[in-house]
Amino acid sequence: MGFILKLIKSRFFLISLAVALLLSIVPGVLCAMGQGSYVRSALVTVSTPFRWAFTKIGEGISGFSLYFRTLDELREENNALRDELEGYKNLVYDAELIGEENEFLSSFLGIKEEHVDFLFEDATVVGRESTNYRTVYTLSKGTLHGIKVNMPIITDTGLVGHITEVGATWSKAVLITETASAVGAYIERSGVLGIVEGTYELRTEGICRMVYIEPDSDIRVGDKVLTSGIGEVYPRGIVIGKVTEITMDENSRMLTALIEPSADLESISKLMIITEYQIISEREE
Description:
Layout (H helix, E strand, L loop, with lengths): L1 H8 L1 H22 L3 H79 L4 E12 L4 E5 L12 E3 L4 E8 L4 E5 L6 E6 L5 E5 L2 H4 L4 E6 L10 E4 L11 E10 L6 E7 L8 E7 L9
Antiparallel strand pairs: 1-2, 1-12, 2-5, 3-4, 3-12, 4-5, 6-7, 6-9, 7-8, 8-11, 9-10, 10-11
């Protein structure tokens, strides 16, 4: 109550009351005297800045709303373009996969034509386990696909290795450069026989060696080395690699040839497992 009394007695209240009475009485008196046009003119004059301000505010709000609406439309369009671009990328990726698959199948058919007695199962390298002593590849096919231990593995360029362990849907293989590997081999040009094996020292260089070569054998750098078919693991006629160096053991007087594998053993991703082949005996040869 005291606050209300103070407000009524304050100068601000009295001035506001006087202005309000003036604004109420003066227009009425002027209208009664027939001067209504002055009142309208004054009201228009007073209200014009406010109407302009409200108009600009309204335009600003409308423009602000339009800005956000346009921004949303642009965002939606951008998302649509991004999805379309992603679709094109997938098409390109699929085309590349199809191209790689066709190339792989083409090489497969080439080997099949060359070795009509071979039966194959294609596989993919799904894992590599490397230690200081051995590298083992994990493949995508196992017993459910007819894969067995000791089956040979090749690519379109040459011999890779053989299966050493098999599970239901996977198998493990060692390369011809590993110490556990030994392959009967011969020189294509001259027919010289030997054994291609991996060694601990050479495996890190990605090469192997051909041993048990007689000292008077006709063997040269650049000669192509193929599997001889001797034994029960590898069929005859698969390219192993080429001779890069020939040395003689001073004690045994036997020759040793370093062999560079034809297959790119470091980067293979797809290969073929030979599941069946015709064993050629010495009598048949």
